């Protein structure tokens, strides 16, 4: 018998209890190797723009990932959960909701969370990454962008040029705030920026709470919306180390560690509820072409801010 073959259990101990334990040991030898107590680190991929990509089609959201996260944290023999993140950000609400659910599950199951960043974890993508007890990156990963951005277009000059008259009727003094077909008002901009400052403060508090003393840098440097490559992000304490999933998990849990990918549910109805590509782009045959094109361009612009 070679060392790689399973060893037979010893002679059973006297008594009924010993006999039962002996039967259990023999039964385990009949199970596939993956069920014999090897350490398991389930892997969940969180990829794409966060929040609504278009009205009837969402990107990453709590609703789209909750079941997958629950399955991962409920995996038998799990010693940790690994998250692979590749997101340029998006909705601050959905980002924080996903962050909170990950931390809730980690506390309930008493499992560490290891995050591995691919191309980018910026803005809301970095917020989700902060749910990890440790964050690992590639040297070329993009991290940070701890800020809030909002944008629109102004069509006032265009509609005048083509002879269109804007008619808008509201009840409420500020109901037409920042209407793109009306002149921009300084008071409207000031109100928007005040809201952005509130959201930014929530983001900053979350990062400080998650990273704590590991952060190396002043607030007016770390939280300006700037972003950095992986090695610099390690120096700043935004992440913990350079490392890839396979090498890191094998070094920590041994060469026999299993890393099953926990994917979202699929089936004949899955396409009706917002299936999308990894980059958050959706130009499927069921999408309305103009709406789908605008959504795709908007998502593409979000990735392009980070040179991707």
State the separation between the terminal residues, measured CA to CA.
54 Å
Point out poorly predicted stretches.
1-9, 271-287
Total number of distinct structural domains:
2
Based on CA atoms alone, the radius of gyration comes out at 25 Å
Structural class label: alpha/beta
| CATH-defined architecture of the largest domain | Alpha-Beta Complex
On the 0 to 100 scale, the average pLDDT is: 80
Q: What is the approximate shape?
A: elongated
Secondary-structure element series: HEEEHEHEHEEHHHEHEHH
The helical percent reads 25-40%
Describe this structure in words.
The protein has helices spanning 15-29, 62-73, 92-109, 124-129, 156-161, 186-211, 219-222, 230-235, 245-253, 289-304; strands at residues 43-47, 52-54, 57-58, 81-87, 113-122, 134-137, 142-144, 227-229, 241-242. It has 308 residues and is of the alpha/beta class. The protein has two domains: 35-145 and 226-304, 2-enoyl-CoA Hydratase, Chain A, domain 1; 152-211, no CATH class. The strands form two sheets. Strands 1, 4, 5, 6, 7, 8 and 9 form a seven-stranded mixed β-sheet that branches. It has a two-stranded antiparallel sheet with strand order 2-3. Helix 2 runs parallel beside helix 3 (92-109). The chain is elongated and about 95 Å long. The N and C termini lie far apart (54 Å). 28% of the residues are buried. Mean pLDDT is 80; it is low at 1-9 and 271-287.
